[in-house]
Amino acid sequence: MSIFIDESTRLVVQGITGRDGSFHARQMMEYGTRVVAGVTPGKGGQTFDGPDGATVPIFNSMDEAVAETGANTSVIYVPPSFAAGAIMEAADAGVDLVVAITEGIPVLDMTRAHAFARDRGVRVLGPNCPGLISPGKSKVGILPGQIVTPGPVGLVSRSGTLTYEAVYHLTRAGIGQTTCVGIGGDPLIGTKFIDCLEAFRQDPDTKAIVMIGEIGGTDEQEAAEYVKAHVDVPVVGFIAGQTAPPGRTMGHAGAIISGSAGTAAEKMEAFEANGIAVARRPVEIAELVAEALGR
Amino acid sequence: MDLHEYQAKEIFRGAGIPVPPGEVARTPEEAEAIAREYGGMVVVKAQVHSGGRGKAGGVKLAKTPEEAREHAGNILGMSIKGLTVEKVLVTPAEDIDTEAYVGVLVDRNGQAPMFMVSAEGGVDIEEVARTNPDAIRKLTVDPRYGLLPHQAYWLANTLYDDPKLARQASKIMGQLYEAFRSNGCSLAEINPLITTPSGEVKAIDAKVSLDDNALFRRPDLEAYRDTADEPRAETEAREAGLTFIKLDGNVGCCVNGAGLAMATMDLVKYYGGEPANFLDIGGSSNPEKVVNALKIITDDPAVKVILFNIFGGITRTDDVANGIVEATRQLDIDIPIVIRLTGTNEEEALEILKREGFEAYTSMDEVVEKAVELANNA
């Protein structure tokens, strides 16, 4: 099994005619994701040309796209100024999951978009996230499909390339994944570590979990307590930003140590105190997982 | 983007919040002239992007214009937490009865704006939060409705028993929320909000942080950006579209992705080195970005080695390798460069780099160890 996306995922790409949207729509189709619709206001009625002669109908609105194609998931590649609106449009159209790739959305826009989606029971992943992939089944977002392989590890991370790094080592060690989820580097994200742990816990195929966190906020600490209380499979953790100075935003808008809260040391301590094996270097992540799985 | 006190006060005045007058001086003579204009006692306040100005001696009361000049002379040029003071704010001194704290920020957990108020103002609110958390009252605002009148009144009532004061404070709460919202702030703070013996409520210090992601809506606020106390390299990087933060070490880091960049810095430290910077060059193989990144890194004379750590996912690593080769040809770099590329087409990438005479690796640990060794022996 897998979490959040699988073979039944029917995807709409919001912003499919843009530079990033069109590139990644093709990448997702090549991976095998069922891309059933695209949305670009003003371009309804046109078609998007995918790989190998495949075509995707384009609609003016999410409402039409969902009504016509039965899409249940959307992915957003629209520019920051329109992205919060696109999230709310998707939530209103009745998809189950909205994956917001866009980086740089104003935080006050996101306070409204998250509240709107929550009221409608719609899961938002991101924003400013690489998306997610269930190896061999479906990928939604920008994760490179060639570095994953099916297997028993569930992975959840706030980072992009650091996630690829960890997955790459797992795959090279012959350890595959159920689903890899990039939850995003913004301060306000729709799906947190705990939500992913909850989903992995209910997935019988996930035999071990990797959590990759970074400085800023307290989500990792809360997730660590959740692990101790509810998660039965082994969990391996890593925190980036041990050398980050306080008060400086380290690339991700959410990666900032404010006051005494959100340091890497604090998070690593919380992991250790709650039975999570802490990797000191990225390469150790795969080693600790192999150990936990008895390989 | 953090604003100076005098800039934050301009925003607050624009929102209707009662803020005493004030003018900025860049020389002791200007400070004296401003003090003479106001007459009476004035406060001379250092304008730097740092807290703890008072403790550092950057805030002084002056009884006469001559004294204002003297204080300004001492404060201008002083260093507060590594930042040089280039401007002071001169403002009339107020008679103070009570001091309170009022702040609104974006709460990560509640995913909404949150007010924090405390009758214990004038001090570091994080200190109050640690030592006496019950002294802080919090209120989450639903961003779809804004701060409702009864909520503003509730906040005001937690500060003042006197209805006349509470009424004024309630109005200020609403004005502060509006300033926070309409300027795209991530933080707007009045500390202290004072009451005077004559029964007025006023904001005598102000702090505002703007959400960088919201600046596109208010390009006018860009004028508040003060790059004087920011390392020049950071200003250049921002203008080149790179995320760069200067640190004190000697290993120059050039990495794609913020998380991997932090993990690379951590690994430099793990192997006994010190990173010279945080730098995220993003996912593209564009040689121009690499050229800009290399220029910024090598501008720092402390840097003894350049370390590339690139994970090629959708961007192929052989493309990235070609980008690095092209970029280094355009520049005259006299310190060693070590490169690690992993991911799609890594064998081809290594071949390209080795053919051009670079030290190239696929293991992150190996390349970082090598970089640290080169830096420590330089």
Shape of chain A: globular
Give the DSSP E fraction of chain A (strand runs of 2 or more residues).
15-25%
Distance between the termini of chain B: 37 Å
The H-and-E topology of chain B, N to C, reads as HEHEEHEEEEEHEHHEEEHEEHEHEHEHEH
CATH architecture title of the largest domain in chain B: 3-Layer(aba) Sandwich
Using the 3D structure, state the CATH architecture of the largest domain in chain A. 3-Layer(aba) Sandwich
* Number of discrete helical segments of chain B: 12
Helix content of chain B: 25-40%
Helix content estimate of chain A: 25-40%
Average residue-wise pLDDT of chain A: 95
**How many strand units of chain B?**
18
Number of strands of chain A: 14
Q: How many structural domains in the coordinates of chain A? A: 2
Topology of this structure?
The complex is a heterodimer of chains A (295) and B (378).
Chain A: E1 10-14, H1 19-31, E2 34-39, E3 47-49, E4 55-59, H2 62-69, E5 73-76, H3 80-93, E6 97-100, H4 107-119, E7 123-125, E8 131-134, E9 138-141, E10 150-157, H5 161-172, E11 177-182, H6 193-201, E12 208-214, H7 219-230, E13 235-240, H8 264-273, E14 277-278, H9 282-292
Parallel strand pairs in A: 1-2, 1-5, 2-4, 5-6, 6-7, 10-11, 10-12, 12-13, 13-14
Antiparallel strand pairs in A: 3-4, 8-9, 8-11
Helix pairs in contact in A: 2-3, 3-4, 5-9, 6-7, 7-8
Chain B: H1 5-14, E1 23-25, H2 28-38, E2 42-46, E3 59-62, H3 65-75, E4 79-80, E5 83-84, E6 88-92, E7 98-107, E8 112-118, H4 125-131, E9 136-140, H5 149-159, H6 163-182, E10 185-195, E11 201-203, E12 206-210, H7 232-239, E13 243-246, E14 251-255, H8 258-270, E15 277-280, H9 287-298, E16 305-312, H10 317-330, E17 337-343, H11 346-355, E18 359-361, H12 364-377
Parallel strand pairs in B: 14-16, 16-17, 17-18
Antiparallel strand pairs in B: 1-6, 2-3, 2-6, 4-5, 7-8, 7-10, 8-9, 10-11, 10-12, 13-15
Helix pairs in contact in B: 2-3, 5-6, 7-9, 9-10, 10-11
